[in-house]
Amino acid sequence: MAARQAPAGSGPGDGPAQPQDRWILVVAAGLLSFVAMLDMNVVNLALTDIAEGLHVSSTTAQWAVLGYQLPLVALLLPAGRWLDQVGTRSALLLAVSCFALCSVLAALAPWAGWLVAARLAQGAFGAVLFVLMPVLAATAVRPELRGRAMSVPATLGPLGAVTGPVIGGLLLDHVGWRAIFLVKLPVCLVALLIAHRHAPRGGRLRLPDRGSLGDAALIGSAVAAVLLGLTLAPDAPGFLLLALPAAPLVLLWLRRPGGRPVAAVLRTPGVAALDGSVLALAAGFAATHYLLAQHLRRDDGITATTTALTMLAFPLGMVLAGRFGGRLADRWGARPTALTGATVTATGLLLLVPLDAGWTPADISWRLAIAGAGMGLNGGPVQALVMSAAAAKQLATAGSAVQLSRSLGFALGPALGTAAALAGGAGTTAVRAGLVLATLAATTAVALLALHHRTTRSTRTTGTTGSTGSTGTKSSTDSASTASTASTRSADSSTGSRRSGT
Questions:
Q1: What domain count does the chain have?
Q2: How far is CA 269 from CA 41, 330, 332, 489, in A?
Q3: Model confidence over 105-124: pLDDT tens digits?
Q4: pLDDT of residue 494
Q5: Are the C-beta atoms of 289 and 314 separated by less than 8 Å?
Q6: CB neighbour list of residue 372: distance below 8 Å, 6 or more residues apart
Q7: Are 388 and 260 in contact (CB under 8 A)?
Q8: Of the residues 208, 229, 247, which one is the last residue of a structural domain?
Q9: For 243-274, what is each residue's pLDDT tens digit?
Q10: Of 66, 101, 389, 477, whose CB has the highest number of CB atoms within 10 Å?
């Protein structure tokens, strides 16, 4: 990659140099994963305090989260195209520096418009970081060590999700909501110093091409239209009409050069159902997390620290179950493991629907832990299924599409949950309505995974019977099916136990 070292026991001219493994860059990738997941979880907890501190409604304060997620979704795929054209070191230094600067600007926000603008900019640089994390970890070491390297950000990311709410709760109770935007700065500073000193030089920054900007504009406009419609509809249902342009905008993007590879991946049998299940499950999780955090803080008057410890049950269950998801998929198969995980998540969310004002934080915690365990079982196997279904030349696009689906689910979940809650009444009754919608989203994920099973099985059956019926054709089909299963289980072995559906 950059520096070279001679093999042990050889002189300068005795053989070709071997690439030096830069584990310090793997650490940097892990730190960035930690920060990214922390940021997505810690702000939800502070929305009640932000609304009070800036004297705005809870709907307006919600844009402190949505403002970050909107550009993250819109720029995820274009950021990948841009990073292929520039130097990794330059892009990393720019993204980390500006991400940290936006955190400072958010902490200093004197009014809501300032805060939302800072979060929009932070989401744009966050998209670059999300794409850079796996690239940085995978290219910092030799190919035979990439599995171990990729486990570092895969582990530190969920750790950020677990510790973020706890740190945020302590800061909210003892310092104030502005501190939650500053808590990331020390980690960003360490990652920045590592990148400046150790990242390989080469490549220069350049402005994104017009095609990437056009793709980002189309995706961002579609997502913004849906979010605005859902956010404003509870006060005036006519605002739902704002969401209508989203479908033609997405269709137009899929016909453009930047969207055609994604369209090709989605046409692969079963992939669209898998991506849809990822989106639905992420939306159900995000809606539940948002609604319960607001319920505990606003309706029950629970302290921020207690709320954080209660919400900790979900990511904790996800991390613990995620360690076994890959092993279970190796023995049982990726598809049944992913389906079981989605079913367990839907069950946990269903148990939350009868939410009662007399419930203690412990009553909520164990139900959240069940839902989180399901997400942990589902994450790695469903990712392996997507990678196994896609062609070799489409792996990067398939991975980006999964990330896009997950990020879109995270963005839509709070808006959908809020819309359902406001339409359902007030207080605990409203929260129940939102939880019903979250459960329906998770149930949709179960149905889509079952549909994927039927679609792929039908495809294999058609491939076997649609030929001349010769023994050679059947043997070829059976061999392809066996290879596909082996590929799936191999992918599970390398990714399933490390990815927990972040």
A1: 3
A2: 34, 22, 22, 18
A3: 999 999 999 999 999 999 88
A4: 42
A5: yes
A6: 313, 314, 315, 316, 317, 318, 321, 345, 348
A7: no
A8: 208
A9: 888 889 888 888 888 778 778 888 888 888 88
A10: 66
